[in-house]
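Table S5 (text form). Sequence records supplied for joint modeling of the four-component complex.
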Amino acid sequence: MHTVDEILDFAIEREQQAADFYSNLAERANSAWMKEMLLGFSKEEMRHKGKLKSVKLGDRLLNADQHVQDLKIADYLVDVEPAEDISLQDALIVAMKREKAAYRLYSDMARAIDDPELKTMFLGLAQEEAKHKLYFEVQYDDQIMRDN
Amino acid sequence: MANPIELLQRFGKNFAISEIHEQKADLTFFKVPKEQAVRLLRELRDDAGYTHLAFLTNIDWIEKGIFTLTYMLHNYDARHSLGMHVDLERDNAEMQSIHGLWAQAATYQRELREMYGIRFPGSPRLDEDFCLEGWDQIPPMRKEFDTAAFSLERFYSREGRGTEDPREHMKGLLYPTHTDEPSSGGQ
Amino acid sequence: MFEPNPPVDLSSGKYLKLWQGPQHPGITGNMSLELTTCGDEVVDCKTHVGYLHRGFEKLMERRTFIQNFPIVCRIAVPEPTFNEYLYAAVVEELAGIQSPERAEWIRTLNLELMRLASYLMWLGGIGAAFGQSTVYQWTVTHRDYILDLFEEMTGARVYHMYIVPGGVRGRLPEGFEGRCHEVLNRVEKLLRDVEKVLFNNVVFKARTKGLGHIPREMVDPYGITGPNQRAAGFARDLRKDAPYLVYDQLEFDLITATESDTYARAWVRYQEMHQGIRMLRQCLDRMPKDGPFQARMPNVLHWQVPAGETYAKAECTRGEYGYYLVTDGSEYVRRVHVRGPSYTHAIALMEKLAVGTNIADIAGLMVSLHTYPPEIER
Amino acid sequence: MSLKDLISPFYVWQRAFEKPYTQKRPIEDRPGAPRYRGFHMNSEDCIGCGTCETICQNHAIDMVPVEGLEQRSGDSGLRPRFDYGRCCWCALCVDICTTRSLRMSNHYAWITEDPDAFHFTAGTDAMPWNQNSLGYRRDDDYHLLVHERIDMQALGAEESVAGFDEVMKGYTEEQAVLEADRCVECGICVATCPAHMAIPDYIRAVRQRDYEAGLRLLYETNPFSSTCGRICTHRCETVCVMGYQGDPIAIRWLKRAIVDRVPAERYREILGDEVVENGRKVGVIGAGPGGMSAAYYLRRQGYAVTVYESQARAGGMLRYGVPSYRLPDDQLDKDLEYIRSLGVEVKFNTHIGRDVPFRQLIEDYDALFLAVGLNQPSALRIQGEEHPRVLSGLQVLDDVASGRDPGVGSKVAVIGGGNVAMDAARVSRRLGADVTVLYRRRIEDMPADPEEIHESQAEGCKLVQQAIPVEIKNAASTSQVTIVWGEAEMIADDKGGRPRPVLQEDRMHEETYDCIIAAIGQGGQLDFIPAEYRDRIEFKWNKFVPGEYQQTGLPKLFVGGDIANSRADAISAIEDGHHAARGIHRFLTGTLDG
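The corresponding structure-token record, covering 1307 residues in total, follows.
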């Protein structure tokens, strides 16, 4: 990946993969509301994809120095396997962990690269993923840890 | 002078005094039958020192069908007041006049005639209007006279008046369907 | 003992009917005197009231106990606070509420200030009725100084609505005592001037001495109270005979006279103003400066006073002012009867005294009885 | 005649040159005294309770809607409008104002040629005196209302942890009447109560000692009055206008004051519930407050109602989640037995999906109400959670309610800050344990009822706030368990929600307990609904999204309770059941489309 467009294509492809991941999971899910919700996650990823596409056409990414809150919930929860009888709680854990992994990936890439323009692009993507993770962490905080 | 209870007991030999109630050290209430009232007033004034008639008024006990007159007497020397109650039939109420005992009683009786419709035969200027010139309704102090209804009928309100009950207002706007109870019995 | 005035034959052509009022005959409020005159001598007098009838006693029967407190003051316009106090007193008595000591002192202060203001207005009235209008200007101005005090104490100049069942509505304002002393000093100085200008005035003396003489024997049969009674030689004053509020802790002299005419009644009232100032100074100096001024009250919105009846009275400027309250345990008053001293003074007594009086003296005579028509009609 | 009397009047000249007292208004300004009762002012604190209108003896005040002002929970959106043709400036409205928003300025002159102009809404209409700082306001030491709540007798902390006796003893009649007397009957609370109970009316019934009328009022909207009189979340009290200057009315306790005074055997006679069978039948899934409330109101309409309950007893979370020191069994039974006495059939130990297929229900019944609640405890999902000494809060409460020993040991950590956590903690105290509660946020953020938090502390539970569990480890002894938790920093939520805790990795703690009770939240379980139906039903997160009258996309199916609302309390479930009963009746009588 040597150009901004290549990076964006890579990222767009990743969002598509994520969307597919959730819609596959939704298809297999045997509980109605989980199906609904996973489709919702999938739509959320498609929305991210759409955002990146418009960046490619000239829109701006999140600024790299903008602060995105890290609730660190994904840090101390255990990994769970996506299964047919996945619960809301586990689906959220899967989602936040995936976003966290994506954030890590882009951050690492940014660190490994010297080209300032590309570095900025990776950092911007990392910020986007941090924001997505925050979204799932907030939902987890609200929906699952109601009493905690 | 004797204490008021003893005094009333003494008078009780000749008068059917009942419902004695000592409201406070200087005020005692009691009741006497209508027929004995004026005679007792005269004796209280002349023999017991209750020379001052503070007021004469009436209480409407519409639910019991009676008027209760209150004669408030005062003894300046003993510094004690007696509230004398006399029950009258509410319909067709009539009482003996005491304007011969106290001059100002004529005014009270004239007012009671106008405000409650109680007759005091022989009382001066009894049937002349007192406060109410040209009054064509029932005597207004009687409980059945409804002042609010009267004023709503006679007068109009300022335009633009109108109020909302907070509870009903919120119901209508915030949860209108949560209150429509179906009629019981179903179907 | 009602004795009708001797009948007159109007068809004889000797008599003239003359209406005085219903504009204020004197400055006492709206009522009218239907005079029958022969020359300039009054031979018969019939009073007519009803110009001020607002039906307070009836209105009170459909208002709750707290809702009644703002309307009672209107029963005696120039001297409203006696109504406030007496209404509070009867409700408190039947409800078993004791207003705190601080409130009792403030109430006394309030009532005595009221008395002084009311007497000042009356003093102007008696002056004006006998052609001494300057006195009227002076006294009404000084009454206004007292109304200024009421304004800052109660929030209103005339209808104070300050004495409320349970106590009073607020503490005295900061620095009130000092301003009150200052006004008292001014009024006291004025009174000395009024004594010179009015009471030592040859015209005033000539016209008032002997006018409207009330024989001693008339006093009880006509229900005459207050200064009218004290000027006839009766040493009766509810503040001494049945002390209410803190009157048993105040030093003051009971003023009486024997002549029982217009001059004597004016003189008694004038002396009582000095006694009032004396009492006010005692109040200001001795009243508690802190502590509660309201008893613990129930929720007034649905306050039910136990069934009962009582009568409370106070010595107002005109005599015995009283509230008779009957309750039936509900949230409403069953019956209130307001006993205003003018009820007897302005009607039965006036009709009697007017006979034989010169037309020119009728206003002065009326003022000398110090009557307030609104308290007749309630 | 003396010479003195001739000369003396000439003293009048002494005052000839005195300055006149007359004040030249309007050339000179003459402000009213600082406490002058002038024209009215109203601040933003007004919540439109209308108490000013109630006390106004001149009928000078109207409560009117104000443009741009929204009614919401705790604010009627109305504001007082003054008719100065009637006002006498007595200021009773100021004295009684529950929020102290209403006062008077010392402004007293208002001159206009239009006699109809003297009519305005204080505070919202632009008036020249709106900024006045002086004028009448109620003295701090002067009250026309009673601001302090009447205390209820309760067991002391020592007594209460000694057993499962009810802690709150209920009001005596005198206390109840005094507490009821404080109510101003504004009715602001009615909108906030999820069941829209006739609160001011039944409080008046308590004041008048008319418990029969009170019971009838309660049952109009709530057939769990004995229960709610004890454990309701009393959202009403949070908006009670008496709370602005003192304590809100103890609305919940007053409800209890009514039911405590009416014996169960008199209910039928007092309520006059006559069931006239209408020939239709409705199935209810779940015998919790939602299901039984629906059953009651449907039965009153003449429907044959069958309730399916997976447990051995009715009551749902009220039975298995609320310990008896808060809600004694016999009180819950009082409510439930009355509903059953009307002929509501309850099939116990019956799982839908396992014992009876959902399809059969939806086919057999004219309509179905589903309120299965949230009974699946959320897992901690941290390392080591499967340790045998990690228990679930719901399980502990269920064990105790069913007479089993949950075996908590003598040193317990409870994780969570909701009512389940508080109850698990208090139950553990009663079982003799030392209890520590670990909560991720601050005590003031706890979703548990304030009373529960307060009482658990009084009973000796130690509350540790801002503590995030990170890992569970084996302890030295197999009968014990070690928890690793880290301290949290709180950060504000930009969307105005609860503040969110963030783990501080450098401040970690390790503690060992006999057991750890997790009570961080619950979810639902709806796998028994076959896919063909599910696809037609709307969900959001883990809950149903019912339409009007609790109806779902499956027209015969109505839902309610914790699984269909965000409030997740008994009173909301009760109203869902009641509302669904309204909807089902409309649906079956053709006034609600399917």
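Note: Chain A has one domain: 4-63+73-144.
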